[in-house]
Give the backbone structure.
Amino acid sequence: MKLLFKPFKILFILLTIILLIPLIILGLLWRPVNPPSDYNEQAISVQTVISESIDDFLENEEDREPLSLSVNAQAINTEIRNQLLQQMEANEESQYLINQEPVFIQGVWVDMKKDTINITMGVHVDTSILIFKTRLLLSFEIVDTEGVIVLRLKKLTIGNLPLAWSSRFANSIYKRLAGEDLETMIQDQIGTLGEFSLKDRTLKIDLRNLAKEVPEHEELIVILVDLIYSEDLLSLGINKNNDEFAFGLTINLDKLEDKTLPLVIPEHLKINNEVELELFLKTQIDLDESKLITTLLNNKPEFRLSSLDINRVLDYFVRTNMEETLNNNLAEFNIYQDYEFIVGNPYLEIENNLASVNVPVILSSPTGGSFTTMVKLTASVSVENEDLILEIDSLRMGELTLDNEFINQIMAAFPVENEFITGTKFVLTDFSNYFDQFGLQFKNLTFDNSDLVLEYEVEGLSDALDSITNNPNISPVVLDKIEDVLEDIENEDKINELVDLIESLPEEERETLFNELQAALENLFEN
């Protein structure tokens, strides 16, 4: 008899197991949750946290510290909830934030622990028999890798059922229960903030994507994010702040600060139009008696522009190519809300035979605080065709030094529409043409301490000397020496002999020679 009932006993056990497995699974999946008690309260927004942190940084000018942002869970939850209300047409008054029968979502919220962030979604499913209550819990470890914040999945739980070890099955289980794709649903909740992969168990948040919020400056912001990471200017993570964990971000902008006072051209020294520019340049090259000997006859004609002189010219070219609305700045734009990013007028600094183009940069707050730095661009100076070219070789900003490759990138992305700037070149268009009227042709550009030295040759000098060889007002000895020079105009020894002879003449005779030579060169020095 026992043998007769044994198969039934085995069958009963199998049936019991088959019936219990779904019940066990359902029991494990059952996990009612409630949003945080302050979930429906409007906490201080993330934007406000950012604004207050930037204001504190900008206003603390005397003892500058790194820019620090700290956002707690309540602020993040408020932001998530507001985004869901906006993007999903959610119902703010209902107990369910999102109602997509038979699935009802109570909300999405976060809580944080050291180096870990937990994301919870409360879900109710109407099974017709009962409202099945569960939660989806994702626990991430934060890994920061140069501009991409990777949240690596440590835990994936539906109800009380841990599924991180079998994330490939989690999608099908949830789809069978809720009727929708789990990975797609999570990605929809995250939106453009990041990219979720159930297969890789990662949520990637690329800070470069934040640039898409400011499309007109997207390329520039992406470059700046790359710069921040390459130069170790940013650190982030979850830290304990006032007995609660918060997401913290620190930007070491203090490393970039430079309080060097920029050069400002006084109003009375500014060149305002073409006529004033020509008069200024003529004044620089106009030759008096002493200069005639040392510049025309010694075959080394040159004139010098001091740092102030060249910056007066540079200032004129910048303002000529500038929009009137820019308040005498090269560029002005809002980088975030009402925080203004100002790029001042560049100026040239010559020191120890090296030139740098200095560009003042200011980040200012609507409350009055500001952060200043000076972008110092090491430059080579040359003449191409008729243009004076300042070409950037390297960049220094505070403690930071960058090479030409980065400069090319940032200049290409820089929001300045200005003929004065072409790639990494500052171009003073048709600069040498201003000297054509004086009969001068440039040969070379050099630096001497803080001066820019422009070497040139004078057209028609031989003709001018030849025209006075028969002048009865000039000493025959001098005329003979002039003819000797004309036979070999490139011979420096003969030129030096003529210079020495002229300098030894009596003052009256020397003045006569100057007058005759000046008359012969009047086309070069006409008033």
Observations:
- Residues 1-13 have pLDDT under 50 and may be disordered.
- The first strand starts at residue 67 and ends at 72.
- The radius of gyration is 39 Å.
- Residues 2-29 form the longest helix (28 residues).
